[in-house]
Design brief:
By secondary structure, the protein is mostly helical. The chain has one domain (9-155). 59% of the residues lie in helices and 8% in strands. The chain has 6 helices and 3 strands. A 3-stranded antiparallel beta sheet has the order 1-3-2. Helix 1 (10-22) crosses helix 2 (24-47). It starts with a strand and ends with a helix.
Length: 157
């Protein structure tokens, strides 16, 4: 999943591109903080059994419920957590243009098959919903402004 700042206003877009050229390190830090925040959103939402668009995941099959019950795991709703390794295998990389959230190679297969299964039910866990987009844009803006202020304070001390 890639996170790139989206802007509709052309004047604002030009100013943001200028800021990226002039202060690439601050943009990278803001994108890193935003990616970390998005990882937390995905983990929290998945723990509750809710997909990107706010729709609950489909229930476990009866056979799989029995497997989970024998392993003393909860079976009331799909939470994508059996060992806890898949979500802990999520990490991000950030540069001045984008932040990418992905899974390590060991946990990638689990995430991939969960995503394929959930797409059949028109639900996904590894994406950003429409409601979350505004929250994430606001978070990036706040982080970027904070980084610019920190740079200004350091330069003027």
């Amino acid at each position: 999943m890639k996170i790139t700042p989206k802007i509709n206003d052309q004047g604002l877009k030009r100013r943001l591109n200028q800021q990226i050229r002039e202060q690439p390190r601050q943009v990278q830090k803001a994108l890193s903080q935003t990616a970390f925040f998005v990882m937390g959103l995905i983990k929290d939402r998945s723990k509750k059994g809710i997909g990107a668009e706010g729709i609950k995941f489909p229930a476990y099959s009866d056979e799989y419920k029995e497997i989970r019950r024998q392993a003393t795991r909860q079976t009331f709703f799909r939470d994508l957590n059996f060992t806890g390794n898949m979500m802990s295998g999520m990490y991000f990389n950030a540069n001045t243009k984008r932040a990418t959230i992905q899974f390590n190679t060991r946990e990638y297969k689990k995430a991939y098959y969960n995503e394929l299964f959930l797409k059949k039910s028109r639900n996904t866990f590894f994406s950003i919903g429409k409601r979350e987009e505004n929250i994430i844009n606001k978070r990036f803006t706040e982080a970027f402004i904070k980084e610019i202020k920190l740079k200004w304070v350091k330069e003027n001390l």
